[in-house]
């Protein structure tokens, strides 16, 4: 049986005043695909994520999620229906512990956000606490459960952020440069974590390093000045003359 189409972009454009940031992009993403989204600075990658996540509205064109046009759906509803994103910069509550950060996500998912979470609520929300602990254990991060996020290394913080996105039970996970600013060891940890995500989770990841995309992504999509200029396997994209031209022959390390 054919895999369902998770995301479909049809002639999608975004203008900021006279500036065309995304121009007439059409593409389909099927369930379970792992896509690397690359392109030089200002190519429109984050803007595309912003539109898919519902943080900004397209100027024209449509975004469909499992066949339903979601242009008018607010971002929080998109999150609830399974479109979960991470940001270029950490979006964690630095003064809270890892467990507390995770509880905020779980609470929102279980519709318990109307009651503010506090330590004393452990008795009332023991199932949420257990769930948070299980998630941290499952992903090998249990040792950080009671650490304040601000005291953790940047690499661990980014891992926690991905775990929190996963806790949101995404069907489509949008990762915005999850390895930016990381050492090789930290990058390997993040990629290891991403590769362990359930196969059914569809991923689009903005990434700057082709080496990271190779072996981890099925498909690479290239944006340049708001246009989709290449879409294929990492190998095809790496050998694409237009892509090579844009990156001036630096086909091994393509910067986002
Ligand atoms: N709210 C906005 N108003 C005006 N221009 C914007 C806005 N958001 C983005 N832009 C412009 O749109 C273009 C694309 O930006 P975007 O952040 O999507 O690119 P990017 O490919 O993610 O770049 P980078 O790799 O540097 O993050 C840039 O020229 C940027 O200045």
TrEMBL record:
Statement: the UniProt record of this protein carries the keyword Nucleotide-binding: yes
Matches recorded under PROSITE patterns: ABC_TRANSPORTER_2
Residue ranges occupied by any ABC transporter domain in the UniProt entry: 7-250
Pfam family, any one: ABC_tran
InterPro entries attached to this UniProt entry: AAA+_ATPase (IPR003593), ABC_AA/LPS_Transport (IPR051120), ABC_transporter-like_ATP-bd (IPR003439), BCA_ABC_TP_C (IPR032823), P-loop_NTPase (IPR027417)
Flavoprotein listed as a keyword: no
Swiss-Prot/TrEMBL keywords: ATP-binding, Nucleotide-binding, Transport
Record-level Gene Ontology MF annotations: ATP binding
Protein's recorded name: Branched-chain amino acid transport system ATP-binding protein
Organism whose genome encodes this protein: Aeribacillus alveayuensis
